[in-house]
Design a protein that fits this description.
Order of helices and strands: HHHEEEEHEHEH
Mean pLDDT: 82
Radius of gyration: 16 Å
Strand order of the largest sheet: 1-2-3-4-6-5
Structural class: alpha+beta
Strand content: 5-15%
Number of helices: 6
Shape: globular
Distance between the termini: 37 Å
Number of domains: 1
Largest sheet: 6 strands, antiparallel
Helix content: 25-40%
Number of strands: 6
Length: 217
């Protein structure tokens, strides 16, 4: 069985049996990030964090601050949103855009059978650490949210601007899960544009390409 999947299942079981919590320091950090996400659209300077992995240099666009409150999520595994429903036409457009990207195919995820974002064999994998299992670098949940690997500094920016939240594995610094985040369900076309930009960023990160998100609108 794939090592990352084994870690995922093992951690899930331990979390359920022991109700394991993140450290006080990390909890405080999460709290400070969350309370910064309000209807005030003030900007946040982007920090840069190092990563042990070799990272491809790809073009990114600075993220705007997401308006509104941050959706509630579970704090353990399974890591899901709570009480969020997708907007049908927005969700349909999300799927259309994602699976129109060359080299991405819709296969069942290696985790819980979600809608996987899997790379075809024709696509070169430049950062193998940015794969959940097999050739999957992300998956879409039934509510339109999705887990995905971003370049670690980009993941931090997405969390700080309230477009994403770190997966518990990333928070606990479990090896090879650095940069793994959940993107919230887009509720409008404007939100979808940012979410899709991050999906393209993830694709560019794992493949070393430089696709432009607006080419798929």
């Amino acid at each position: 069985m794939n090592k990352l999947i084994t870690e995922y299942m093992s951690f899930t079981l331990l979390n359920i049996l022991k109700n394991k919590e993140v450290s006080t320091l990390k909890t405080l950090l999460i709290f400070l990030i969350v309370i910064s996400c309000s209807k005030d659209n003030s900007g946040i300077d982007n920090g840069s964090e190092g990563d042990d992995n070799v990272v491809n240099v790809v073009t990114t666009i600075k993220l705007s601050q997401r308006s509104g409150s941050r959706p509630e999520t579970t704090t353990g595994v399974p890591h899901v949103q709570i009480g969020v429903e997708f907007v049908p036409e927005i969700n349909e457009e999300l799927f259309r855009r994602v699976y129109s990207i060359p080299g991405i195919e819709n296969l069942p995820s290696v985790i819980a059978g979600w809608q996987g974002l899997s790379l075809t064999d024709e696509v070169t994998v430049a950062v193998s650490a940015a794969l959940i299992g097999g050739r999957e670098f992300g998956h879409i949940h039934d509510d339109g949210s999705l887990h995905i690997f971003l370049e670690p500094a980009r993941a931090t920016e997405a969390v700080e601007t309230c477009w994403a939240i770190f997966h518990p594995f990333a928070l606990q610094q479990i090896p090879k899960w650095n940069g793994f985040v959940m993107l919230y369900t887009p509720q409008s076309i404007d939100e979808l544009n940012v979410t899709f930009q991050l999906i393209v960023d993830a694709y560019n990160h794992v493949t070393g390409q430089n696709l432009t998100a607006t080419d798929f609108y």
